[in-house]
Amino acid sequence: MTALNTPRVNCISTAKEFNLLGVDSKYYTLKDCCGKNGLVVMFICNHCPYVQSIISNLVSDVNLLQRDYQVNAVAIMPNDVVAYPEDSYENMIDFAKENKFIFPYLIDSTQKTAREYGAVCTPDFFGFNSQLNLCYRGRFDGSKKDKLQFYKTGSSDLFKAMKFIADTGNPPADQEPSIGCSIKWSS
Questions:
Q1: Which tens digit of pLDDT belongs to each residue from 83-114?
Q2: What is the pLDDT of residue 144?
Q3: Which class would CATH give 3-143?
């Protein structure tokens, strides 16, 4: 698998509208997903080793952001499921259950949403303030594909950035790009 890095944050970007099917058989729009103090839009998939290595820590941090800082999150799976059946809708349902997602996990079957956001890899994180201005385009943390054995909830780069955004509405100065598997685009 080719590892890609995300581009630097463009603070003039705003969140893009979507209407996507979730693993709970409901459709979600951008408005449905927003939190009072911000929103994290995450492009992830089931089979990516980068996602798999952080998923339990990511879920813990997102839960804390939602509970304590009113920053919501939504995960979007953009990959071509014909070429990558391990990312199928049915497998997404299982992945969300296994990892105890309390946020929507949506399938971008046309890949339109991923293209509009400019997503390049899984995981790819977009952090928006309460006005839905892009303030963070960075990594979850410094880990690669190896699972962290001693992780303290709330210590990730993503968590710290979104806490700062929730408190100030501004982008944090330090942002390291995310690294992950390339999105599997349809032909």
A1: 999 999 999 999 999 999 999 999 999 999 99
A2: 64
A3: alpha beta
Beta bridge partners of 71: 38
CA distance 55 to 44: 9
Residue boundaries of the structural domains of the chain: 3-143
- What one-character-per-residue DSSP string does 77-112 give? E-S-TTT-GGGSHHHHHHHHHHTT--S-EEE-TT-H
SS (H, E, C) 17-48: CCEEEECCCCEEEHHHHCECCEEEEEECCCCC
Residue type, 23: V
**How many Cα atoms occupy the beta-carbon half-sphere of 28 within 13 Å?**
22
φ and ψ at residue 98, rounded to 5 degrees: -60, -35
Q: How far is CA 25 from CA 89, 106, 111, 157, in A?
A: 10, 9, 18, 32
What tens digit of pLDDT does each residue of 122-169 get?
Answer: 999 999 999 999 999 999 998 766 555 566 777 899 999 999 999 999
The residue type found at 162 is M
